[in-house]
Amino acid sequence: MAVFRRPVLWHMRIDIYRDKNKTNQAWKEIGEEFGLPEKTKKRWRDLRDRYVRERREASETTASGSAASNRRPWCHAGLMAFIDPFVASRMTTSNMPESCENGRGGLEGQRTNSCDLVTPVLLI
Question: Please, which residues have CB within 8 angstroms of residue 76's CB and are 6 or more apart in sequence?
C-alpha cells in the first residue's frame, strides 16, 4: 500500500511520473517507512513482475481435454490489481512464416525443409 499511496511510482499517465527527483524521493520515503532504504525498489520490481507473470499464466488458455490446473491464485493479486491499466500485455510479432509456426510447411500437414531446424556441421 505504500507504493499505491505514491502514484509517481506507478501511474505512467501523470506528468511527474518521469521526474526522477520525485520518484527518488518517494522511494526514499518508503525505505524509511519500512527501514529498508536500499531494498524497497527491488522488492517492488519483484512483486510487480510476479503479478504480471501470474496474470499472464492465469489468462493462458489450456488445450481442450487437458487436466485442470491445481494452481491457486497468488495471495497478493488483489492488492496489486491497481496496476492493471499499466501492465497490459503487448502484441508480439514473429519473423517465422505462419506455416512454420503452425508446424506445417507443406501440403497435408507435411513439414518441408524450409521449416526444419538446421543443425550446423563441423568439418575437420
Answer: 47, 50, 51
Residue 28 C-alpha cell reads as 526514499
What is d(CA 117, CA 105) in angstroms, rounded to the nearest whole number?
Answer: 12
- What phi and psi values does residue 24 have, to the nearest 5 degrees? -65, -40
Quickly tell me which residue has 510447411 as its cell: 105
Give residues with Cβ within 8 angstroms of 104, minimum separation 6.
110, 111, 115
Residue type, 112: T
Crossing angle (nearest 10°) for helices 40-59 and 20-34: 100
pLDDT in tens, 35-81: 887 888 888 899 999 998 888 888 776 666 677 677 788 888 888 88
CA separation for the pair 36, 23 (Å, rounded): 16
Q: Is the pLDDT of residue 4 over 80?
A: yes
C-alpha cell at 71: 494452481
